[in-house]
Amino acid sequence: MRTALQALRTLRTDAVVASADVTSTNLGAALRNVEAAGQQASFLSRWARGVSSSAAPQAQARVAVEGDLEGVLQEIDRVVSSESAGAKEVADAAVALAYLQAKGNRRLWGKVFEKAGAVGPTFDAASLTSFAWAASTAGVGHFKTVFELSGAAGRVLPSLSPSQLSHVVEALGSAGAADAELFSKIAAQVAADVGSFKPADLARLLWGFGAAGVDNAKFVAAVSKALTEKASELGGREVAQAVWGLAKLKRADKATLDALVKAAKGKLDSGVDAAGLAWALGYLGYKPDAETAKGLSAALTAGVAHLTPAHAVDAAWGLGVMGVADKEVSTALFGLVSAALEAAPDALDPYQAAALFEAAAASSVKLPEQVVAYAAKMHALVAEGAKAKRSARLVAFKADLAEGVARSMGARYRPEVATAIQGFAATTADGVALDISVSLDAQNKVAVEAVANCGLTSAGTPLGPALSRAKLLEARGYKVVLVSQVEWAALDTPQAKAKAVLAKVRAAVPSASSKLSDLQKQLDAPFDPYTQ
Questions:
Q1: How far, rounded to the nearest angstrom, does the alpha carbon of residue 520 sit from its chain's CA centroid?
Q2: What is the biggest distance separating any 2 CA atoms in the chain, rounded to whole angstroms?
Q3: Burial of 36 (0-12, 13-18, 19+ CB in 10 A)
């Protein structure tokens, strides 16, 4: 048998550089089977990409090495510690650690990243691609080092093949290394020659741009068009990547999404892929057809054992936003999360727990009371934090919207408007805070929700968070009216704003048409505060 680095070096050349199909971004769930016989060991590794901040592709790799694991790690340590080690050796070491599932060896990974930073200027296209692939696959990183490697990426950019470029961009995105100048060059290069990229390469590129938060309209348009035309060539994994990238960039082109969703039918053989796709579609406010909903639910139910609690929450939240009501999958997802929280309350971060609270509101399946109580507290905590971070522009929008609601409900003079606004704030029995709530009568409560520009898709429609909150309030008896910052800015007078609010309320609460008609008459009547 070959020695460890010899085997892994061949593997790097054959599987990492040459193949566009071997890729992953986060070592979300790993299965390792080690069978030892004396001094020999065979390592089988499996990767699953995380969902909360990524899509969910999986890759499998097998390599037989000679010697025990500790001996292999010592050899890797010796290689990267050598003063003569160059970019190729660093890339080999990183790939070896990735394949050997040595994510927990922070000391050794630290040495690899330190050496990578030192030899950065000497990386060629192949070594840079291999190092980038290994770091993103293993789910480890050092932002400073990866960001500095943007310089090496820019230098070798003309020599990178389409597949290599997609892996490098994926790694940069995974690390959050959004080098604006580099991404601008990459965007221009891809847009100018998008036909030379395979659909899988384009999916990775879109994922990388989305993860880095770099929205380049020309790039997205070119890649979306190409993926729409070649969607049938994508696997379920690549569809999840592409849709997740579009979601992070808030791009909701229906033709592209329809083509990608159609391509995923019958190809979702991984619960993690399905969870990533469910979250992304929900985030974009996409409405799936019955067949798509059934396929997502089936893939999630079959693969629930391989999901982390965060995966399960993302999946449940996405399904809830899309209105996919499948009792079997909801029971499985909520059961996994409940068990994890009962064992360790920190199994979810506050944002994930808040999403769980909203997902539960959209489902007929009930969580255990103690889980609901915990999720409700986290939801309130997250909401309070978001309120403290509101921009001055958003605060002004909400204040102006409140005034518009007050006028639509009959307030005229400033003291009347001020008094009405003071009575808008409300809190539900389980702690959900509302900025603007109005009671039309004993049966009809209305929640008017302001949707900031950042909460809208590229098409100007509300993103999943606004839709999810609307479902949460509806479950608590409110009729919900969403008002976007864009449409509000187009209204130029207080009367026009009041009439726009009233029209939305009328659409949301047709049963209160009599009272709303009276309010409409008041708005239409001439009003001069100086003569009344």
A1: 42
A2: 100
A3: exposed
Residue 197: count other Cβ atoms within 10 Å of its Cβ.
Answer: 24
Q: What is the pTM of this model?
A: 0.85
Region class of 213: left (phi > 0), else alpha (psi between -120 and 50), else beta: left
Residue 241: count of CB within 10 angstroms of its CB? 35
Residue 105 burial (CB < 10 Å; 0-12/13-18/19+)? middle
pLDDT at 358 over 90: yes
The Cα 26–Cα 419 span in angstroms is 52
d(CA 80, CA 91): 10
Average pLDDT in the 399-416 region?
Answer: 94
Token pair 């400073």: residue: 144
pLDDT band, residue 68 (cuts 50/70/90): low
CA 16 to chain centre: 26
Report the alpha-carbon distance of residue 223 to residue 229 in Å, rounded. Answer: 10
% of the chain beyond a pLDDT of 90? 71
- What tokens does 516 get? 């709303």
Region 425-444: what's the mean pLDDT? 94
Count the helices and strands in the chain (H runs, E runs): 24, 8
How confident is the prediction for the chain on average, in pLDDT?
86
Separation between Cα atoms, residue 108 and residue 170, nearest integer Å = 23
- Whether residue 322 contacts residue 293, with contact meaning beta carbons closer than 8 Å, is answered with yes
Report DSSP letters for 115-135, one per residue: HHHHHGGG--HHHHHHHHHHH
Given a cut of 60, whether residue 26 has pLDDT beyond it is: no
Sheet containing 58-66: which strands, arranged edge to edge? 33-37, 40-48, 58-66
Q: How confident is the model at residue 101, as a pLDDT?
A: 73
Within 8 A by CB and 6+ apart from 291, the residues are 265
Helix axes 125-138, 143-156, angle to 10 degrees: 150
User: Residue 91: enclosing H or E segment and its boundaries?
Assistant: helix 87-99
Work out whether strand 478-484 and strand 40-48 pair parallel, antiparallel, or are unpaired. Answer: unpaired
437: three-class secondary structure by DSSP: strand
Q: What is the C-alpha to C-alpha distance for residues 272 and 58, in angstroms, rounded to an integer?
A: 8
Q: Do the Cβ atoms of 242 and 281 come closer than 8 Å?
A: no
Share of the chain above pLDDT 70, in %: 86
Distance (Å, rounded) from C-alpha 28 to C-alpha 24? 10
Helices (DSSP H) in 362-391: which residue ranges?
Answer: 369-388
Close Cβ partners of 73 (under 8 Å, ≥ 6 residues apart):
100, 102, 105, 108
Q: What is the pLDDT of residue 24?
A: 30
From residue 339, how far is each of 87, 107, 302, 328, 332 by CA, in Å? 45, 33, 18, 17, 11
Task: Point out the least confidently predicted range of 96-100, 220-224, 260-264.
Answer: 96-100
442, with CB counted inside 10 A (0-12, 13-18, 19+), is exposed
